[in-house]
Design brief:
Blueprint lengths: L1 E3 L12 H17 L5 E4 L14 H4 L3 E7 L3 E9 L7 E8 L5 E5 L7 H12 L8 H11 L5 H13 L21 E4 L1
Parallel strand pairs: 1-2
Antiparallel strand pairs: 2-7, 3-4, 3-7, 4-5, 5-6
Length: 189
Amino acid sequence: MVIDGINGLVSGAEGDDTTWRSLYECTIRPLKSLRVAITSADNLGKDTSKGLRGSSVKNDKPNAVMELSRTVSGVRLKTTHRRSAVFSKQQQFDAVLNDDGEPIAFGHPAGGWPTNVIQLAAELDRLGLPPDTGRERARLAMTAAGVAAATDVLRAAISYRKSRPENLTWDPQVRSSENLTVPTLGQVT
């Protein structure tokens, strides 16, 4: 689920903790319990060094808070808060361009992922698993081969394998460069 403009989802004072605790307890936590992944866009205040506008609860509840900015070759995600080491401090995504030079997708260059994620992805490649292999099938193959890894690292390795530029495809019916927008800040919950 993508919430584009988390401030538009609540009523109440932006700086009041109860406004945000209610959102997380009554809406986001029940969705997470149903295994719904949630990403939300938010805004930085006028003084960007202070981070998100409003309550500090916005930084406390999500699994990660990432600042998104444009780069020459794509976009950069800078993690400002995280609950798991699977979210590296900074990640670079290079744009995959169509024939007209318009971005149609973003791929993760190898240097932006944590070393243990890249190593596990290489091991999954060595085991002959297709790039779109899911966690359960990958875990079965790893167990059979005597390969061990934490679940969060396995999830990241699966994402890494799917996001490599050679695995990205462009379907003009699904991905339109006219619909690409880059918010200033997002939360991964």
